[in-house]
Design goal:
The structure holds two protein chains of two kinds.
Chain A (H helix, E strand, L loop, with lengths): L3 H5 L3 H22 L6 H22 L2 H6 L1 H18 L1 E3 L2 E7 L2 E3 L1 H19 L7 H19 L4 H5 L2 H10 L4 H21 L3 H11 L10 H12 L11 H4 L11 H34 L3 H25 L17 H19 L5
Antiparallel strand pairs in A: 1-2, 2-3
Helix pairs in contact in A: 2-3, 2-14, 3-16, 5-6, 5-7, 6-7, 6-15, 6-16, 7-9, 9-15, 12-14, 14-15, 14-16, 15-16
Chain B lengths: L13 H35 L1 H12 E6 L6 E2 L5 E13 L7 H12 L3 H9 L10 E7 L1 H8 L8 E11 L6 H4 L2 E3 L2 H4 L12 E3 L2 H5 L1 H5 L3 E7 L5 E9 L6 E4 L3 H11 L4 E6 L6 E7 L13 H9 L8 H4 L7 H13 L7 E4 L2 E4 L2 E4 L7 E4 H7 L2 H11 L1 H10 L19 H7 L34 H8 L16 H5 L36 H7 L9 E5 L5 H12 L3
Parallel strand pairs in B: 2-10
Antiparallel strand pairs in B: 1-8, 2-3, 3-4, 3-5, 6-7, 8-9, 10-17, 11-12, 13-16, 14-15
Helix pairs in contact in B: 3-4, 13-15, 13-16, 16-17
Classes of the chains: A mainly alpha, B alpha+beta.
Chain lengths: 363, 574
């Protein structure tokens, strides 16, 4: 499966960026948990990293065409797992989305992102058309909606939202007409007031309001955003130094080993660190797009663009929250935040992209 | 069945390829734009506004903590400590480390011999405090308990023993009223200008010398800057700040030996006594009984003791030496003598005949000596405390002169002693001057001692009836009423002790006692004048001493050994 020459066809820039981000992430998880009861998490994350690398190799080794032919199997399996979770899942932080496997807890919703993407790509490469047909659009929506609804029922809206870019990218690349796109953009803007009035829960409203005006409630809901901005801002140009960030080490920063790990990094490493990390993330995205462009077939295009969309969307949402540009959601920063499921899934996704690159050339 | 994804060799047709490339390109540009805007945002946040945010971060983490100084010690006239600071061991419970609350509570209640409910209640009291703040489970445990707990730190990691300096009144209730006690500043005190600069939770003197000399005893607060975490827990101390300056030591005029002797003589009787140095006005001993233990106020869990003190029928908190009023009794004979001599109305050689009684306004007044003293001159009359002699002398002098001289000798005024809430004696003569003089004015000094309505300290009850002042003076005051007040006086503790008796100046270096004393609940009337000041007054024209308890305030360095031990302990506190 993995031929010798394939090694030469590995995208080293992408691999390097991904691994660098993982290493930076490990360091930041260590910094976020050092000297606290959470300290063992850094070691745990290292193990997850190892598992993730194996996932990457696995996703790289098996030809993505083979994976695509098995995609409906994966997809069905993950749906069954999600249904199972609704009844027997372990609840952590009010979310019934955890699968207990011995000493570790996994979030199958994360893996579902990849199986959904595989199914979606397989579907679109089978049903090709000059422009997006209603049946194709229906297929895209159906394939993505099933897991999203199940995940939203857990309820884990943060993870559910990260599926949206899949639909967007698939529909966009599938040839949706520009006029339709414009209409689709207008609908949520117009629908927002109704949504606000009837469907948003109070805590969701609070999040939006405090996002718009964090100073309104500095000790309550605005606390996280405020402390996060203080952490990032106080890092200055060069940062306070590793393990020296006062916002992080003194625990003013909330969820600093997960959702706000970027703030911790920005505080301890300053603007230069932020620049490096942001650049690395951009290189990953750029390479994914380049690989999509170079892909041999449309399946590869969808796969690479899908992984890229999932990845970029999470990065932008997470850092957007950290900078106070977006309401708090609870989306982890790919490759850096603590969390085995997210790390393994992201690495496996990267394996898929590398897979596409490696097999870009027609024999 | 299975779709061969690899067989679709005609991957992308021309239009598809063009569309994909265009749209992928669009996505790339969009993302690049977003990343650039994020980068710009980071630059703005970290580089442009970095300083502002750094200040905000410092505000988060740096906290100024006040360090309380040690309160000054109080020493007697020979430098022996009366009030010190001692090290108290408090048992603390760190709620963050509790794994099983029930077990901890059970173990603690066994070790500390407290009911489980009490332990739980003390923990519950901290419900609204941050969890890192330890709960004081028991205060002031003895060394054995502290050592027992310290040796079990491994089994009970959540329990620790902390050291706290505590006010210690070395001899319990000795001179308790004069010394006073300390407590946390009250909200009403905080509002007063006298207590400017104090904060809630500060310890201040609440009564007696502790209150009067509070400014000297308090010392200067220090401060330090500490780094705190988001929970407010102290993480580290920064090398800036100011060490607290301990309060000054008070050197009292009191003599510990004399005070002890006086207290012992009082036994469990009610009343008060004051020993003065007539040359200087220094108070050598001052007693008010019944007394209380000021150490009670230094404890936190003392609500019951407190209530007992406040509700006690005997009113142990009242300082009878400076707040109660008594008939001066035979002391007033001296006043009459001075008035007569100074005004020239009589000479020391004035003689009178004492048949053992006299009749004034148709009423018979007895002398204490049955059968009388016979013919007697002034010096002898003072020595023997002849009532009849002074009844007659008082009549000769008239109310105006007596009042004038009593006033000049300090009756009816405050002495200005350095204690809080001193009450002036009653100048009843003034009242008589304007109105119903003569009639009820007793010959034993012209003071109306009886018909009094009380105005101070206790509400007058409508049922109260005037009583014979001589009885009250004799029975209840230590010093106020020997002499003229008849045989009951002998039961007065002062009389028993021998050197306290107001009527017999001269036993203790010739300065009398200080019989402005002893208002009781039972005796509903107050005696008029205040105590014996004649002794000093004789020389006072030149010196005019002021009565005082403190003759020196010295910097705390005066007793380094005592303070260092506590300061050392404080260093290793945390």
């Amino acid at each position: 499966m993995l031929e010798r020459r394939s090694i030469h066809n590995l995208d080293w820039l992408l691999t390097f960026s991904v691994l660098s981000l993982c290493v930076v992430g490990l360091g930041m998880v260590y910094s976020a948990t050092a000297g606290s009861p959470l300290a063992p998490l850094a070691t745990k994350q290292l193990v997850y990293f190892g598992v993730g690398l194996m996932g990457l190799l696995l996703a790289l080794a098996i030809d993505y065409h083979t994976l695509a032919s098995l995609s409906y199997l994966f997809y069905a399996a993950s749906l069954i797992l999600l249904v199972y979770l609704l009844f027997f899942g372990r609840a952590i932080a009010n979310t019934r989305g955890w699968l207990e496997l011995g000493p570790v807890n996994l979030q199958p919703a994360e893996m579902t992102k990849l199986t959904t993407l595989l199914a979606l790509s397989a579907f679109l490469s089978r049903h090709r058309s000059a422009s997006l047909t209603p049946s194709n659009m229906g297929g895209i929506v159906l394939i993505v909606a099933a897991p999203v609804i199940l995940i939203a029922r857990q309820p884990d809206l943060g993870t559910a939202i990260t599926f949206v870019p899949l639909v967007a990218v698939a529909a966009f690349l599938g040839g949706m007409r520009l006029r339709t796109i414009l209409i689709l953009i207008m609908i949520p803007i117009l629908a927002f007031p109704i949504l606000w009035k009837h469907y948003l829960k109070d805590y969701q409203k609070t999040r939006v309001v405090t996002f718009l005006n964090p100073a309104q409630d500095p000790k309550g809901a605005g606390y996280q955003v405020l402390q996060s901005r203080i952490a990032v801002g106080s890092g200055g140009l060069t940062g306070k130094g590793f393990l020296e960030g006062t916002q992080g080490q003194l625990k003013f920063l909330p969820a600093q080993h997960t959702d706000f790990i970027f703030a911790l990094m920005a505080e301890e490493r300053g603007f230069l660190g932020s620049l490096v990390v942001l650049s690395l993330y951009f290189v990953v995205i750029y390479r994914c797009i380049a690989i999509a462009r170079a892909a041999r077939d449309i399946l590869g295009v969808y796969l690479a663009m899908g992984v890229m969309a999932l990845f970029a969307c999470q990065v932008l949402i997470n850092i957007g929250v950290v900078l106070g540009l977006m309401p708090t959601t609870g989306v982890p920063l790919p490759l850096m935040s603590y969390g085995g499921s997210s790390l393994i899934t992201t690495l496996a996704g990267m394996g898929l992209v590398l897979n596409v690159w490696m097999r870009r050339l027609v024999n | 069945m299975a779709w061969d994804y690899r067989s679709s060799k005609d991957f992308k047709d021309y239009y598809e390829e063009r569309r994909l490339q265009r749209r992928i390109g669009f996505i790339f540009v969009l993302l690049a734009g977003l990343f650039l805007s994020y980068l710009f945002n980071l630059w703005y946040l970290q580089v442009v506004n970095g300083e502002n945010y750094r200040r905000l971060a410092d505000n988060n983490r740096l906290r100024q903590v006040v360090e309380n100084p040690l309160r000054g010690v109080i020493l007697d006239r020979q430098g022996r400590p009366i009030v010190r600071n001692r090290i108290a061991f408090n048992v603390l419970l760190d709620r963050e480390k509790i794994t099983r609350l029930d077990e901890t509570v059970r173990t603690l209640s066994q070790i500390l011999k407290l009911p489980e409910a009490t332990v739980k209640e003390r923990i519950a009291r901290y419900r609204n405090r941050p969890t890192f703040e330890p709960v004081i489970v028991k205060e002031d445990v003895d060394l054995a308990e502290a050592a027992y707990l310290e040796s079990r730190r491994l089994e009970l990691p959540e329990v620790s023993v902390a050291i706290e300096p505590k006010r210690s009144y070395e001899d319990g209730d000795l001179a308790a009223h004069a010394l006073g006690y300390v407590g946390e500043i009250s909200e009403s005190q905080l509002g007063k200008p006298h207590y400017a600069g104090y904060q809630l939770g500060d310890v201040v003197g609440k009564a007696g010398l502790e209150s009067f000399y509070d400014a000297d005893l308090t010392g200067e607060k220090g401060w330090k800057q500490v780094i705190v975490n988001s929970l407010g827990r102290e993480i580290r101390e920064l090398p800036v700040g100011k060490r607290p300056v301990p309060g000054n030591a008070l050197h009292l005029t009191l003599d510990l030996d004399l005070q002890e002797e006086l207290e012992r003589a009082f036994e469990d009787k009610t009343g008060s006594a004051v020993f003065l140095d007539p040359d200087t006005g220094e108070v050598l001993a001052i007693v008010s009984k019944p007394s209380f233990d000021p150490n009670v106020f230094a404890r936190r869990f003392s609500a019951e003791d407190w209530r007992a003190l406040i509700n006690s029928e005997a009113h142990p908190l009242q300082d009878r030496a400076i707040q109660s009023k008594f008939a001066p009794g035979s002391v007033f004979k001296i006043v009459l003598a001075i008035a007569a001599l100074e005004s020239g109305k009589a000479s020391p050689s004035r003689t009178d005949f004492c048949p053992g009684y006299t009749v004034i306004y148709g009423r018979k007044f007895l002398c204490h000596q049955e059968g009388g003293h016979g013919t007697i001159a002034m010096v002898e009359a003072i020595k023997k405390s002849c009532n009849v002699y002074f009844y007659h002398l008082g009549k000769d002098l008239g109310i105006e002169l007596i009042s004038q001289w009593a006033h000049r000798l300090g009756f009816g005024q405050r002495t200005g002693v350095d204690l809080m809430h001193e009450e002036a004696g009653r100048d009843h003569l003034g009242r008589h001057r304007t109105g119903s003089a003569g009639g009820d004015s007793h010959a034993d000094g012209g003071f109306c001692l009886a018909h009094r309505e009380r105005r101070h300290l206790l509400p007058a009850s409508p049922s109260e009836k005037p009583r014979d002042p001589r009885r009250s003076g004799g029975r209840y005051s230590a010093a106020g009423g020997r002499g003229s007040s008849g045989p009951e006086a002998r039961h007065a503790p002062g009389g028993k002790a021998g050197y306290v008796g107001g009527g017999e100046p001269g036993r203790y270096r010739d300065q009398g006692c200080h019989p402005r004393a002893g208002r009781l609940r039972q005796d509903r009337h107050r005696a008029g004048g205040q105590g014996f000041r004649g002794g000093q007054e004789r020389e006072t024209r030149r010196v005019h001493p002021r009565q005082c308890l403190v003759h020196r305030v010295r910097a705390a360095r005066a007793s380094p050994h005592r303070l260092r031990s506590i300061r050392g302990a404080r260093g290793s506190w945390r």
